[in-house]
Amino acid sequence: IDNITKKANSTMSYIRQNIWSSPSSAKSNAYKTYVRPTVEYASSVWSPHSECQKTQINQLEMVQLRAARFMKHDYARTSSVTNMLTDLKWDTLQQRPINTRTTMLFRILYNLVDIEPDPPLNNARSNRRHNQRLSQIRTRTAIFQNSFFPATVVFWNKLPQVVVDQTSLNAFKTALVSQHTAY
After folding, report:
1. Using one digit for the tens of pLDDT, what is the confidence trace for 141-168?
2. pTM, to two decimals
3. DSSP secondary structure string, the chain?
């Protein structure tokens, strides 16, 4: 994480030096093209669950917060970076992997990728939120509990019916993102 953060900050510094007078859209595109992929690499599989890893997530999140200040050209201590992220319509780096994992589960469930669920995911009996709930995978260790299938099933089961009813991948992604902005 230290190496990733160092590389992302270095790239962001290079962007700041070279396009500081460019329009916000160019700055945003540069960030999304060169910095964000560095920070998000393998984030759909890496699931922070201990206090140590939460510190690492905050370390990565700081890269995006600095980028938001650069995009808005607002470095005042009293400015709210959260409002800047909202104005830029950027999800937190903690929310983006959840969206990615849930989208991957959608692809698996609808056979859009050649991955078999292991263990097999069955529909749960209760349909309190929606009729496509999956059975919760029982785990004994925190490591397995936070691995892809057990953790993602939890997010899937919390989705509203309108999101899981989508039949195309693009419609699902759009509904998923709009759902998170409603929270």
Report:
1. 877 777 788 888 888 888 988 888 898 9
2. 0.68
3. -HHHHHHHHHHHHHHHHHHTTS-HHHHHHHIIIIIHHHHHTTTTT----SHHHHHHHHHHHHHHHHHHHHHHT---TTS-HHHHHHHHTPPPTTHHHHHHHHHHHHHHHTTSSS---SSPP-B-S--SS-TT-BPPPP-SSHHHHTSHHHHHHHHHHHS-HHHHT--SHHHHHHHHHHHHHH-
